[in-house]
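Q: I have 273 residues here and want to know how they pack in 3D. Can you give me a structure?
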Amino acid sequence: MHKSGKQNGEKKEKTPEIGIRSPRVAEIVAGRIRREILTGQLEDGELLPKEEILRKKYPASKPTFREAMRILEAEGLITIKRGNVGGSVVHIPTSSTVASTLAMVLSTRKAGIHDVARALQESEPACAAMCAERDDRHDAVIPILNEIQKESLDNVHDLVFSTIISRRFHEALVELCGNQTLIILVGALEEIWSSHETGWASNVSNPEEVTIQEREAAFGAHAQIISLIEEGNSTEVRRVVSEHLKTAQNYPQIEGSRTIDSTLLRPNYLQFL
């Protein structure tokens, strides 16, 4: 009689190995500091404590800790200032940092600036409609748009400055829509387009290529948009913004400037360098 259990010759079944890689210490340290930045425990522009202090809080060897800092710097969450006045400056992610990354990704995909224009024609009207749907639009939206509009009309004779102010109007439609996801995502697209349109205006050989009458017509469309938002007419303002963009986005797309140039964008954290 055989004893209960494995029979002679029966092979022991192996437990399958699970392909999970243990995170490196540098990634763990970077993750903890990243969490403090994203949860607001570390504020934008704040200087991190010295390395010796941080290494006591996050035990790690000097090479490992510096690798963690390089990870955070590559993500744009800190800027490492080297030298006698060195240190690490904290940066809260914004649509500017998203725009910089997005521009590089679009460049690798060979996407042209017209691709960004088309995306804005679909997304910016939705933001304008949401502005019109805000119950507090008379206090939180209209005064800001009116102030930009006044500045636009006061500087209509200056192509570069009026272009900058015009882009500020479109960016405000996004920033004031009230939806944080759209503010970041569409805001990134606005920054990419604004950098290219402003670059075009700064380098145009003939400032009269866009006549004062054309600029006044664009600002007239802005005035109509403000009125529709004030009325709360989200359906009509969506249509007007869409039509306005199709017209306004034509002139910067001259030959030789159709590709996305990610170097035109300077993320906010570069101001600390």
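Q: Anything worth noting?
A: The first helix runs from residue 25 to 38. Strands lie at 78-81, 87-90.
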